[in-house]
Every structure is written in structure tokens, then in C-alpha cells.
Description:
This protein is of the alpha+beta class.
Amino acid sequence: MTMYDKFKALNLNFSLLGLGQGDTNGGYFCTPVGAEVIGWEGVDGIHYCFVKDFGETVFAVNPMNPAGKNVHPLARTFEDFLRLVLACGSATAVEQTWMWNRGEFDAYLETYPPDAEQQTVLDALRDKLCITPMEDPYRYIKTVQSAFDYSTIPFSQEYYDLSPDEPETQEPPERPEWEVYFDNGFGRYFGHDRPGQEISVNKTFTWGGRTWYIPAVYACGKGLVVDFCVEINPAAHMAFLEKWKPWMEGKEFTPEELDQWTAENPSRIDFAPKATVNGKELCRCSGSGSGWIPMSICMEYEQAELNQQDWESIWLMEHYGLDAEKGWVFWRQSFSWVTMTKPKVKTLSLSLEMEKQSVPGPRFTVSGVGDTVPFTHPVTGETHILQVVEYENQEMDMPRLPDAENWEYPTHCTAMSYVVEPELPRESLTVRDCGRGDSPKVKFNPALEAIGGEDGPTAACSIGIIGGMDGPIAIVLANGKTGHPRIVCSALRFEQPEQIEWRMVFYHKAVEDMEIDLPLLQE
Length: 523
């Protein structure tokens, strides 16, 4: 039985990792000929596949990428692909690595760690298939892609007809007919379904300190599509860019600064919508985001050239009558019907939940078991105590790392088990190593010196604990109460440092959920 067969036999919700079930043929203009789809990201039509005559090589297909950049190889084998997913927390970062440098890759992993549900699936995947996270995912992906001959990917004639040979000019492209399709996002549609029937809503409301506008919804054969338009004050855009300009020009973020940058970004809106039609809650499917920054701000930063996504935003603003002098974040969400046939939409309501925000907490050091760290929750103001239950220096056994004959990898880390009193929900607090760890070293091979430059191995990031420290399920504290231990593992290093500096990150719900009824002006 192959690793892929073992993977398919597992009864796990892989959609949480961007590997949901779906059409195994792909069906997009850029899906390679002979592709066997192995998972769907659930947004923008992104899917992962094998391709005939390429063995176990795993490819990512993204219809929303620029022409000629739609398909990229990710891993030489399916096992390596799963190890990349373990290292990155999901397939999302793996798919986007082709367009990032090392700093952007590290920043993404730091900003978007796996949540509790994702971690449960990752742990089960690791344990049931006996695989370990890829120790240097960035370098592995870049090595695979730099050595690959992209001209060998087989495409249909439709792909070549839609991929211009010459660079796009600044002449406005022809505006397409306004059509919205189920589960398609904002991009061009290449399937065979009928467009959805537009139902005007024109609902404006304030939520989370921003003005939201739902101009219309679309009743499609497979489900409902809702367009969200969130107004961003241009002054907020400019203030954000000015404040963080040194970092945008190359200054390195501290972990706390990166958390703050993410929280303050006016164009970042993470929310989870639910839709109820005729009293029945629909099943949420994929969503797709886009945005618009006023040209006055773009020109200020010498970024006034329009690309295809900008034109799509312009057409969207024109269709809905939005002010192009303001900033906008657009989100198109699809919901599948729960009835056997498409219903007549009589009533429609939405439930909106904003994702939790991360708040940097204090840094601290400990020396061993029994040490305590008093701290004050930055949001609630309540006082808590972190108590170390186990503290152990470990050396990892890494028998299956890529190119081990050419690269030396760091193996030393520190694993800590701790409890918090009074106890906090697990999803509201994490502890991380402040350091980035050590990068792999070339084993005195002059031919590989060039690889170790800008696109060489990245610093070893913090990882989930692998083996060891089989701590107790519950700990009885000195006050007689029971605490449930949490485990964290430091970044990997060649030599064990005398002391690890840790940092706390808190997650809190800054915006209350919202329930709204939508008036249906026409159907």
C-alpha cells in the first residue's frame, strides 16, 4: 500500500489542512492534462494533484495566479508533501512559497500557526502514518522548484489560448459580462454551470469599527453566494503604511512587532460567516478575497501600475456603485444548499463571527521544574501563574531529512511542559521560543555554496514536540487544584544554549458576533 493509499484510508477531516475532497479531475483551464487531484484548498479553485508521467511529484494548481505561474511542483513524493504540510501547519503556505523569500515565508508561519482543530489533524496524521515534519520546508520547496523544467508540464489548448505570449500592456482589458458563479471567487470562470441569479440586498451596517456593505447575493444551482464589501478609510491605509514603512523596506520584525503589524493592518479582516435561508443553516464552502487601495495612495508609494486583479476590483466597484477613492476589502463567500433542489429564497439571515486577535505577551526565562512565572493577562487584567512541570533538553533523531549527505541539520532543542493557574482555555494562550534557531550548514561541498545564499536553508523554526516528555494527563498543584499540562518545544540549534527565552502570545475575541437579517429587494 502506497503512502497515498494509507492517507486516503484515514478517517480525518483534511479540509482543515487545505486538502478537502472534490472533483478528482480538476476541471480548470490550468489543470495539467492527465492530472489526478488529491485535495482542494477550498478557496480560489486551488487544488493539489499528481500528473501522469511525473510519478509521485505533487503539484499545486492556482487559477488565480498570473499567466504562466498557475502550476508549481511542491514535493518529489507524496510522503514529502505530507511532511511539508506537517511543518507548515497546512497546505496553504506550501502552495504560496514559490512567490516568497525566506523572510516572508517565516513571517507567514509565525503569523498563522495551526489552530486547535488543525493541530489535532496534524498530530493524528503524524502518528498514524509515522512521518515527521520536513525540517527545512522552505529550502526543500525552493530546491524542487529551481530544478524543475516547467516546459514539460502538459496543458490543454485552452490554457495556451488564455496565456498571452507578450506582457500585458496598460490598455484596459475588455470588461467581461457581470456573472457570478458558485464556488468560483472573483476570477474568470471556465466551467459549465449557469451564473447565479442576482438578488439585491443593499444592506449597510457597522461591525468591528468598520462600515460593511452587502450589495447583493446570488442564487446559484449549487448554493448561495454572498458579496461582502468592507470600507477602509484611506487615512487608515496611509497611517499604517507610514508607521510600518521601515519594516516594509527591509527592517526585520521582532515576533512581537509581527503580531502587532498583523493586528493593525486595516486590510486584514478575518471572519467566519454563516447563512440561514428559509430557517435552514447552509453549509459554508469556499471564500475568496480581494481588495482595493486608492490610486492616490499607490502613487505615493510608486505602485500605480494596474494588474488583472486591480481591474477586477474596478469592475466590481463600478457594478456596485462603490467609491474608488476609498479603500475596500472584498470577500465572496459560497454556501451550499441543504435541500435536494434549489429553494426559492424567502428569508435570509447571516451570523458573523470575527476571528480572535493575537496580543503579544511578556517574555520570560525558566531554569527547570517547579519554576513559576507570574503574569497579567493583557486584555482581562487578571493575574495568572505559569508553573513548569517538566523541562528537558533533547537531541532529535532525524534519519530521513532531504540531502542529508550534503547538509548538516541542527538537532538540539528544549521541551517544556507547563500548567497555568487559574487555567486559561488552550486556544487563548500559546508559548513560543523567541529565537529562530539555526540554519542547516553545507557539509564542505563547494558546488552547493550557491544554494546557501538568499534562497538557501532557512532558520529552523519552532516545532511540535516529537516523542519524549510523556507527561501526565493532569497535574495536582500545590493549592490542591488540577491543571492540565501544555507542551512546547523550542527552535532547533546545533548547540544547546544555556537558557531559552520564551514569549507568551494571547488570543482574544475583540469583536462580538453579529446577527443580521437581509432584506431581499428582488429575486
